[in-house]
Amino acid sequence: MNNLKKYEMIIYCLIYPILTMLFFMIWIHQSTLPGGDIGMTPFLVGIVLLIVFGIEITLVLILRKRINSLLNKLICLFVAFLIYELTMWSLGGFGEFVLLESFKKPFAENIEGAFSFSSIFSLLIILGLILIIERLNKKTLHNTV
Q1: Structure letter (DSSP) for residue 94
Q2: Can you state the angle between helices 111-144 and 8-30, rounded to 10 degrees?
Q3: What are phi and psi of 92, to 5 degrees?
Q4: Residue 74, CA distances (Å) to 9, 24, 31, 70, 80 in order
């Protein structure tokens, strides 16, 4: 269990882009937009996720000895979301933030919402995993003492 704790944030960094792309592709499948409007968006999301993964894994590897408390893990999740949103904002020409644009259209026609909410859903699942593992670790500590 100690080895898992050592690589826990690295595993979350790997899970994050996979879940985000999965949720985005589910949205595309449910979307009512024509193919021309959403044709290159999976490619864009993939590029953004590669950039975010590179930055995030670098930060986690540099700071891995300090990311041991629940608060630090939550801060890492928040930073991952900020990196994702800032990357989308910079690739979008430094206009309005994607999350803020996502409330202007209906959900089925909202590419901006799909960008942000796929990331949010992924981070919520990872948050759930973190909380479950923290709870299991506390129970294990109580049973060994």
Answers
A1: S
A2: 150
A3: -85, 10
A4: 11, 23, 31, 6, 10
Q: Residue 102 in contact with residue 110, Cβ under 8 Å?
A: yes
CA 56 to chain centre: 10
Specify the pLDDT at position 128. 93
pTM of the model: 0.81
Q: What is the largest CA-CA distance in the chain?
A: 61
Task: Return the higher-pLDDT residue of 101 and 62.
Answer: 62
Nearest to 9 by CA among 81, 70, 50: 70
What digits encode the pLDDT tens for the residues 32-84?
777 776 778 888 889 989 999 999 999 988 988 888 888 888 898 889 888 88
Where are the strands (E) in the chain, listed by range?
none
Q: What is the mean pLDDT of residues 8-22?
A: 90
Single-letter amino acid code for the residue at 1: M
Is the distance from CB of 111 to CB of 41 less than 8 angstroms? Answer: yes
Helix (H) or strand (E) segment spanning residue 132: helix 111-144
Q: For residues 28 and 35, give the distance between their C-alpha atoms in angstroms, rounded to a whole number.
A: 9
